[in-house]
Amino acid sequence: MAVLGIESTAHTFGVGICDNGRILANQKRMYPIKDRGMIPVQVANFHMRNAAAVIKDALDESGLGANQIDAVGYTKGPGLGPCLSVGHMAAKLFSARYRLPLMPVNHALGHIEITKQAFKLKDPLVLYVSGGNSQVLGLVERPFRHYQVYGETFDIGIGNMIDNFARAAHLVPAWGSTVAKAAEHGRYFEMPYTVKGMDFTFTGLLTHAEKSLKSHSVKDTAYSLQETSFAMLCEAAERAMLLSKKKELMACGGVAQSKRLKEMLGMMAGDHDARFFVSPNEFNADNGAMIAVVAEKMHMSGQRYGARALTINQRYRVDTVKVTW
Ligand code: FE2
User: Which of 145, 110, 108, 140 minimizes the C-alpha distance to 124?
Assistant: First the structure.
């Protein structure tokens, strides 16, 4: 069956189409982020202006007509309210126009399932790291089949922390790859390291890094910030691996594109004879294909939704979602 998925959590408006898991199209347009970050209403306006064109691009890429689509999925959350609303509305209009079932998809589940599918993983421990999210997750069967959160950030996502630091250090453009470049050949100095069990926090580290810019070079501060925050993620993931006894580790989300984080996670997995996988960058970035993939699994496993469930939820937690496939 052909399923069209719409993603609009943050700066990306993405539309993907899949057919029995095979990705036929993955189109997107991204709000151009200036160095002061995103204003949700402005991003939502961008999505509104581009929604119809991206849907058309995806249909063209797939070679299918709109009347050949069998179901529609959209991102219910978590994400920025105004942005989610636009994707929700676009999906609703499309499904009403062609009388198609509509599936509300959790964004994190999209990143996880498309990566599992790409590498044919069975039961990985997941490190999901992006701008707004940082979680260690794994599939459990009780009290219902779902992704349990073994550990997570108590404050901000690691991507937000890195972007905030980049702005404080006047790095342009202000995001992770620029910080990684600045960190090359940096020297380490000690920073606050906060892991509680499998949970962690980043705001104390960010404040320390920002203050350190007065006494240390950008290069050394960027390096120390990266090493400390990535080590925190590795420690939390390592503890979850030992607890869950899972033998596959996968990283997904925007920050999983970091070369240094991949290197550290790969070493850690190797220490425990586990295999390590990183999502392809096309799927680490927000995209519509991952929403289509999950929507298809939801539909194929018999899930159906009435109007009451077809909402958005800015804080839609992955551990509340029943995995029915
Ligand atoms: Fe994402």
Answer: 140
Ligand 1 centroid to 290 CA: how many Å?
10
Percent of the chain exceeding pLDDT 90 equals 96
Q: Ligand 1 mean position to 216 CA, how many Å?
A: 33
DSSP 3-state of 173: coil
The Å distance, Cα 214 to ligand 1 centre, comes to: 33
**Does residue 272 sit within a domain?**
yes
Q: Compute the distance from residue 308 Cα to the ligand 1 centre, in Å.
A: 25
Number of domains in the chain: 2
CB-CB contact of 38 with 31 (8 Å): yes
Q: What is the pLDDT of residues 63-78, one digit of tens each?
A: 999 999 999 999 999 9
Q: How far does the centroid of ligand 1 lie from the alpha carbon of residue 29, in Å?
A: 14
Q: What is the pLDDT of residues 303-320, one digit of tens each?
A: 999 988 899 999 999 999
pTM here is 0.95
In a shared domain, residues 272 and 288: no
Q: How far is the CA of 285 from the centre of ligand 1 (A)?
A: 6
Report the separation in Å between the CA atom of 287 and the middle of ligand 1, taken as the mean of its atom positions. 8
249/129 same-domain check: yes
Q: Are 305 and 102 in contact (CB under 8 A)?
A: yes
User: Is 117 within a domain?
Assistant: no
What is the per-residue pLDDT across 202-224, written as a single tens digit (0 to 9) for each? 999 999 999 999 999 999 999 99
How far does the centroid of ligand 1 lie from the alpha carbon of residue 63, in Å?
27
- H-type alpha helices, the chain: 40-62, 81-97, 107-119, 158-168, 176-183, 203-212, 218-244, 259-271, 281-284, 288-300
Residues 275 and 296 in one domain: no
Q: How far is the centre of ligand 1, averaged over its atoms, from the C-alpha of 190 (Å)?
A: 30
Distance 254 CA to ligand 1 centre (A): 6
